[in-house]
Amino acid sequence: MDKELTFSRPLATARRLGEDALDKHCFLEKKVLLTGETEILSTENGKNCFIVGMLLLFRICRNLSILLPAECEDLLNKSKLILHEKKNLSNIQFVEGKIEFKDYDAILNIGTKARPDLPWTVINSNGWLIRISSGRQKISGVCTQNNPIATLGAASLGVTEIFKRLIKLKEIRGRLLESLTFSLDSYTCNENDYGPLLPSNIPIDILLVGAGAIGNGVIY
Q1: pLDDT (tens digit, 9 = 90+) per residue, 60-69?
Q2: pTM of the entire predicted model
Q3: 53 — phi, psi (to 5°)?
Q4: Residue 63 and residue 60: Cα distance in Å, rounded?
Q5: SS3 of residue 117 by DSSP
C-alpha cells in the first residue's frame, strides 16, 4: 500500500503506456545512480541541477544511489540535509569510492561526459540553455551564467530520460535524446545564445491557487 501511494503517479503513467513500456511492472525495483563531475558541480548551475535531479528521482525510484566526487563535500552535506527532511529515506544510499557502473539500470550524470556503453544520461545548463545527451555525444561544459529556471528544466528532462530507461519505453513512443540543446528563451533547439541575464530582483503581484506539480514549478 505504501508503494502504491508514494509512487502512485509514476506507476499510473507506466501502466497507461501499456505495451509501449516493456518493464512497466517492475521499474520500481531497478537501481538508479545519480552522480556528477567536479568541474560542473562547482558551478551554481551544476549544484542546482544535482539537487533538483535528486528530489525528482526520489519520487520515481525506490533504489537510488548517490555518488559525489570527494571535492564536493559541501554539496554532499547539503544533499543529506535536504533528504533528512523527508519522511522515508529507505530508498536512498550514499556511496563512495570506486563502484561498478554496470550494476545500475540507469545513471544520471551532472557533467559533460557521454557513456554509450552504459545506461547513461548527462545534463547541464547555461543561461537559458538546457543540455542533455543519452547517446554517444558529450555536451558543452560552459555553465557560467546562473539561471535556476534552466537547471530545473535540465533536471526534469534528465529524469524523464531515466524514467524511459527504467520502463524500457519503446523508441516508437519516445526515443532517448542525443546531444540536445534547447533554449527556454527562444524555445528552439540547437541554440547557442545563452539568453539574457536574470534580473537581481523580480517584483511579483500574483495570486497562485494550488501548489501541485505545476504550481510548484511556477513557484520555483
Answers
A1: 988 999 999 9
A2: 0.92
A3: -60, -40
A4: 9
A5: coil
